[in-house]
From TrEMBL:
Organism this protein belongs to: Novibacillus thermophilus
Gene3D superfamilies xrefs: 2.30.42.10
Protein's name according to its UniProt entry: SpoIVB peptidase
Any single Pfam family the record assigns to this protein: Peptidase_S55
Highest rank taxon of the organism: Bacteria
Length: 453
């Protein structure tokens, strides 16, 4: 009898091992264990997992007022794992959901956080961008012929390309004209100029003396500087509650140095698309546009980050595809499949075009390349060849939610490119859905106005 019991236990144990090994290879088992440990949900949202396991379980919810399992308000809910497992968020808060196989064996613990639903108005409008840098950006050196010598005082003082001149003799530099006045005054008085400059994250002080050019008799520093850039992009979103906007989806960088331009101010205005240069393999296309009603400022520019430009906007610009706010989609809810974008390819008319999200890149930290998209709309392909310069910032909508923005085009395949998750753009605009670590750097610029000093 004793041996029979031992043999029976061995047989049962062996059978359980075989069953577990078999079940672990099934799609249902893999789907079950793909359910994340930490789950975020927008209030009112629902998540569904099709597990397909021929087993029963019990779901224990620490706070059933926050989430409900299969529509049940109870703290303990019987679950048939062969049927879809549904989790519905009922109110803001946190709760824990524990699954026990056959009501006894703990097999899954999920920490669920429900955050308030956020709605913003999707953009798509073509905008003119006028960005002013913080200080004067050094983009090159030149030699000044003076008293039979060729010299660059700036280069001799170790002022480098990429440095930003913040102050001269204590005066904060906002306009290039200020540099002219200070340089001429110091030269006429035969005085040095004390310069405070920024190099990367450091500030340095240097002293130099301007020299007088023999030909023009004008005092020079031997530096090429500029402080402004302008170009065309696309508005991504407008938040009417906080009165802020986000656009472009990528940083504006200097053409010569390749470095991001710290925003020292600026504005966005209306833009009218006059033509489109169609993209081809190896040659990205481009929107050609003119600024329109420049005196009518749509918003200011307070930040230029790797996720675009951001600032205040008092009201929704004209020519929007819709003036209704739509929900923001969390990055983990973005999936491979159909979606669409809003953008302008002619005049100021925003239109909707079909795309496919072909790959979603899981991100725990802020990064610009969150998804790979492909244009599938024949109208857009015939007009532009796919994604073109100036389309950056075009909002990406999936399942009625604003989930991201177009950022880059693949040079060898203009029908495809990258998109960034909207969450990162919202965070840059000062709207945080949740507290997450962030590591915020660089993409192609537009065009610039250069000054010779």
């Amino acid at each position: 009898m004793f041996l029979d019991r031992r043999q029976t236990k061995k047989c049962v144990g062996l059978a359980l091992v075989v069953l577990i090994v078999f079940v672990s290879t099934t799609p249902g088992f893999q789907q079950f264990f793909s359910i994340p440990k930490d789950i975020r949900m927008l209030n009112g949202a629902e998540k569904i997992w099709k597990i397909g396991m021929p087993a029963t379980a019990t779901a224990q919810v620490s706070d059933p007022e926050v989430v409900r399992i299969n529509g049940n308000r109870s703290s303990t809910v019987p679950v048939d794992l062969n049927q879809p497992f549904k989790m519905h968020s009922a109110k803001k808060g946190q709760t824990t959901v524990r699954l026990k196989l056959f009501g006894a064996l703990p097999i899954k613990t999920m920490n669920v956080r429900v955050i308030p639903e956020l709605k913003v108005i999707p953009g798509g409008q073509s905008i003119g961008v006028k960005l002013r840098s913080e200080g004067m950006l050094v983009v090159g050196h030149h030699h000044v012929e003076s008293d039979g010598k060729d010299i660059s005082p700036g280069q001799a003082a170790d002022i480098r390309v990429g440095d930003r001149l913040l102050k001269m003799n204590g005066v904060k530099l906002i306009k290039p004209e200020q540099v002219d006045g200070i340089v001429q005054q110091a030269g006429e008085r035969d005085e040095d100029i004390d310069i405070l400059l920024a190099r990367g994250n450091k500030q340095l002080s240097v002293t130099l003396k301007p020299v007088r050019a023999t030909e023009s008799q004008v005092y020079r520093l031997g530096l090429y500087i500029r402080n402004a850039t302008s170009g065309v992009g696309t508005l991504t979103f407008y938040d009417p509650e906080h009165r802020v906007y986000g656009a472009l989806g990528h940083v504006i960088s200097d053409t010569d140095t390749g470095e991001p331009i710290p925003a020292g101010g600026g504005k966005i205005v209306q833009s009218n698309v006059t033509a489109v240069e169609k993209g081809a393999s190896g040659k990205p296309g481009e929107k050609r546009a003119i600024f329109f009603n420049e005196d009518e400022v749509l918003g200011n520019i307070e930040k230029n980050s790797r996720f675009g430009i951001f600032g205040k906007m008092t009201e929704l610009p004209d020519h929007c595809y819709t003036d209704k706010a739509i929900p923001v989609g969390l990055m983990e809810d973005v999936k491979e499949g159909p979606a669409h974008i809003y953008t302008v390819v002619e005049g100021q008319r925003v239109e909707k075009y079909d795309i496919e999200i072909v790959n979603v890149i899981e991100q725990k930290y802020a990064a610009t390349k969150g998804m790979i998209i492909k244009v599938t709309d024949e109208r857009l392909l015939n007009k532009t060849g796919g994604i073109v310069q100036g389309m950056s910032g075009s909002p990406i909508i999936q399942d009625g939610k604003l989930v991201g923005a177009v950022t880059h085009v693949f040079v060898n395949d203009p029908t495809s490119g990258y998109g960034t998750f909207l969450e990162w753009m919202l965070q840059e605009a000062g709207i945080k859905l949740n507290e997450m670590d962030e590591k915020i750097g660089a993409s192609p610029p537009d065009f610039f106005v250069e000054h010779l000093r």
